Amino acid sequence: MECLCGKTFKSRAGYGNHKKYCTGSGTRLDRKKKSAAWTCPICNKHIHSRRERHVEICDGLGGGVLKRKKGPGRAWRKGKTYEEIYGSRADEMKQKVSQPSEARVAANQSLEKRRKCSETAKRIGLGGPTKRGGRGKFGWYRGYWCDSSWELAWVIYSLEHEQPFIRNKEGFPYEFKGKNKKYYPDFQLPDGSYVEIKGYLSPEFERKKESFPCKLQVLTLVEIKPILEYVEKKYGKDFIKLYE
User: Fold this and answer.
1) CA distance 202 to 179
2) Listed residue (176, 167, 175) closest to 133, CA to CA
3) 226: domain CATH number?
4) DSSP string, 51-112
5) Which domain holds residue 132?
6) CB burial readout 14-44, b (16+ within 10 A) else e
7) CA distances in angstroms from 38 to 61, 66, 78, 110, listed in the order given
């Protein structure tokens, strides 16, 4: 058995061991040695091996293998703004990232997804007039229990504007899909009306409203936004640190 450098061997084992260190013409180490002095003319990156592979996928930014997956978060894009990455397409990409696709929205609203969320909520004890009725950032603020940052913002705003309220603990019956359940609004006002702070209006919540016997004020993102802006301006975006 003969190597490209001209040396012969009696066994395959000896030849294999020789190939690891052989620097003769045409060997692996010889090819590596030749490419070690090569610099890419596109991205100016020094290439030690796999020169052909780099040329094939070079993106001009020194990270050829990243060309297939563009977007914020990749190593070479760390710390850069959308304008620096996408240029004139920055606004388009911001809009694309901020809005979920129709397929994702449909998947989140599917019956299977809602069934799994319901099973998870039951398993960890969510729901009802408990100290944790949701998945938001919860805690106590001046004697009032809040299940989310939105509820905390509403409580802060109401207290600072001298709007009296109490935390509701009364359940109101309703029926949904043949099952009898109870609905617990978030807060009660002195005039007997109730306040519900809701981020997502589901078909079941629509059924709750239909069966609810009292006046109900529902605060979604549109209604709660001015309150959030007031609280964030006064206490900062990390206002949940106000929890006791």
Assistant:
1) 16
2) 167
3) 3.40.960
4) HHHHHHH--SSS-GGGGGS-STTSGGGTT--HHHHHGGGHHHHHHHHHS--HHHHHHHTSHH
5) 125-242
6) ebeebbeebeeeebeeeeeeeeeeeebeeee
7) 17, 20, 27, 55
Same domain, residue pair 143 and 220: yes
Q: What digits encode the pLDDT tens for the residues 18-52?
A: 776 675 655 655 555 555 567 777 777 777 666 66
Maximum Cα interatomic distance, the chain, rounded to a whole number of Å: 101
Only one residue has tokens 């030849």, namely 15
Q: Are residues 53 and 132 in the same domain?
A: no
Any domain includes 23: yes
Has this prediction a pTM greater than 0.70?
Answer: no
Q: What is the rounded CA–CA span in Å between residue 117 and residue 127?
A: 12
- 175: which 2 tokens? 């029926």
